[in-house]
Amino acid sequence: MSLRPALGVAATAALALFAATPSTPAAADSNQSVTADSNQSVTVDPSGRIAADGTITLTGTYRCSDNTGPVFISSTIAQDSPLVRYGIGGSRAVCDGQAHRWENIGKPRNRVLKEGTAQVEATLMELRPQGGLPLPAFLATQRQDVVLAKS
């Protein structure tokens, strides 16, 4: 298997594992942040955009440094039911210790999201090489209530 499909499989497995992890009582709060250390952080902007075709744009900031593997920013969104979350894009992070902006764009398959309040979670995740296989290390997460407005 070449490197690109292997990284894709590892990232998919990591996101599935993260999505299957039950929430703790503290994680149930609307707006919260969990960070492994002060060099790693991710934020979510309080507003997002929804296009006429249902495409969602979410933004925020991140900071990371001293990483050994590739780092990604993923985002999910929920509206109406916190049990149903939709993945909205994903982007590669530059880990140089500086603050950077991120933007993820995606469109849920069955256009179910609408203007108004939604709950967004952004995750900063590194794929660390261990025993020849890249394994996920979650560096920071941020849950934020967001207002979706027409773009």
Automatic annotation (TrEMBL):
<protein>
    <recommendedName>
        <fullName>DUF6299 domain-containing protein</fullName>
    </recommendedName>
</protein>
<feature type="domain" description="DUF6299">
    <location>
        <begin position="39"/>
        <end position="150"/>
    </location>
</feature>
<feature type="region of interest" description="Disordered">
    <location>
        <begin position="25"/>
        <end position="46"/>
    </location>
</feature>
<feature type="signal peptide">
    <location>
        <begin position="1"/>
        <end position="28"/>
    </location>
</feature>
<dbReference type="InterPro" id="IPR046266">
    <property type="entry name" value="DUF6299"/>
</dbReference>
<feature type="compositionally biased region" description="Polar residues">
    <location>
        <begin position="29"/>
        <end position="44"/>
    </location>
</feature>
<dbReference type="Pfam" id="PF19816">
    <property type="entry name" value="DUF6299"/>
</dbReference>
<keyword id="KW-0732">Signal</keyword>
